[in-house]
Amino acid sequence: MNPAQFDDKTSALTTWMTLLERGIRVAVSIIDPFQIKTPRPAMTTTTVEQVDPATLKKVIVAAAIGNFVEWFDFAVYGFLATTIALQFFPTGDSSAALLKTFAVFAVAFAFRPLGGIFFGMLGDRIGRKKTLAMTILLMAGATTLIGLLPTYAAIGVMAPVLLTIIRCAQGFSAGGEYAGACAYLMEHAPRTQRAWYGSFVPVSTFSAFAAAAVVAYALESFLSTEAMGNWGWRLPFLIAAPLGLVGLYLRWKLDETPAFQAVAQEHAVAHSPLKDTLRHHAVAMCCLGAFVSLTALSFYMFTTYFATYLQVAGGLSRATALLVSLIALAFAAALCPLAGAYSDRVGRRATMATACILLMVVVFPSFLMASSGSFIASIIGVMLLAVGAVLCGVVTAALLSETFPTRTRYTASAITYNMAYTLFGGTAPLMATWLISMTGSNLSPAFYLIAVAALAMAGGMALPETSKISLHDVPVAGEEPVVGAIA
């Protein structure tokens, strides 16, 4: 590529970024037209750094409940895919209908990075509290609509069209949920216990999968096939309505984070969060994204793919495979706070190294035991993989906030998280299945995980130690602060 061509492409990218930011500014002006606030009382360092325990408990619940709704819907859609396929894609070919159902699932994933950009910029301009209220409202509303959606038999081709649109809305809202929940929780947490407090976001993720599995299994066990097809499949989606309202109430009742309040008080809110993010933190985003790729891959292999692997490679029944997954998910949820305490004690870099090395070491024994056909061996095998996935998830929750400064934290972390999850998480079951079909070996996905772990190790070790830094940074003289990030 000659210099002229490079300049043309750079100019086009700059123009696109400018247009995108202008569009989002218009959206901000519509959503929050009265941005002039009454002056807040001056914050001392002590006020900013300390949050009372009662408030912290409320913050944990408020941050976790939206994440729970997001992953509960994700898991329910997967567990009930065969039933949903028959309701919205009755082509006479069950395989084709199931494929279309998962295609709708994949399309929703494509909207996550867009949602991350939109809600990330919004969160860095109007605050975490308002933005997270919007994400949970959109997510819970869209999930509830699926439960109320007419089927193909009632409205014909409009049924799958509406399902696709609603799933895209879910993907869009999910793009702003996880990174925002982490930022909201981390900016309230004590400096020396951030990973422990942040671990409750992954706890809500694993708990959501377990709850979805229990609900799906109970419905399939106690309802007839006819009842399940007529109305039973709707119930899990309708659960999102009360959960979403509770989450919205909790989030709206709490205050904005101390870190964002301090930035707003100093009139240092980012005018162009996306531009500032890409200009000052592109390298840090790439390094952190490399590590988050392992978080995404290990998470989806453990929570989504292994239930299928236990049946196909291990010969377990669907009910037994589901029970193994439930036990492992409960184990993972219980392990998260311990992993958080470990990370607070040894630091983020040591935790990343532990997670990468552990996954490289245990992945082969894990796959071998899962394919043995033994119930006990399968549980141990899945738990081994769960330990690595939990370590990755907990340290990622901390790093998403610690790697970037307050004024662009939401934007940078949302883009990094969603790009990694879209590229490595959403494709994990497909890649694992493709590798087995191409090689004929049930162990081939293990090699893929090892390769990604090596990439994650390289990216993670390029990041500085951030476990003891303050997240309450206020820019001085218009400078962009670098908080534990590589500029």
Automatic annotation (TrEMBL):
Gene3D superfamilies reported in the protein's UniProt record: MFS general substrate transporter like domains (1.20.1250.20)
Main location per the UniProt record: membrane
| Keywords from the named record | Cell membrane, Membrane, Symport, Transmembrane, Transmembrane helix, Transport
**What's any one GO cellular component for it?**
plasma membrane
- Using the record for this protein, list the coiled-coil segments as residue ranges, or answer none: none
Q: Where would I find the Major facilitator superfamily (MFS) profile domain in this sequence? A: 59-468
Please name the SUPFAM superfamilies in this protein's record.
MFS general substrate transporter
Instruction: State one molecular function term (GO).
Output: symporter activity
Question: What Pfam families would the database entry show?
Answer: MFS_1
- What InterPro entries does the record point to? H+-coupled_symporters, MFS, MFS_dom, MFS_trans_sf, Sugar_transporter_CS
How is this protein positioned relative to the membrane?
Answer: Multi-pass membrane protein
Protein's cellular compartments: Cell membrane
Transmembrane region positions?
68-89, 101-122, 134-155, 161-185, 197-219, 231-250, 282-302, 322-343, 350-369, 375-400, 421-440, 446-463
Domain of life, source organism: Bacteria
- Give the PANTHER family listed for this entry: ALPHA-KETOGLUTARATE PERMEASE
- Tell me the protein family, please: Belongs to the major facilitator superfamily. Metabolite:H+ Symporter (MHS) family (TC 2.A.1.6) family.
Protein's recorded name: Major facilitator transporter
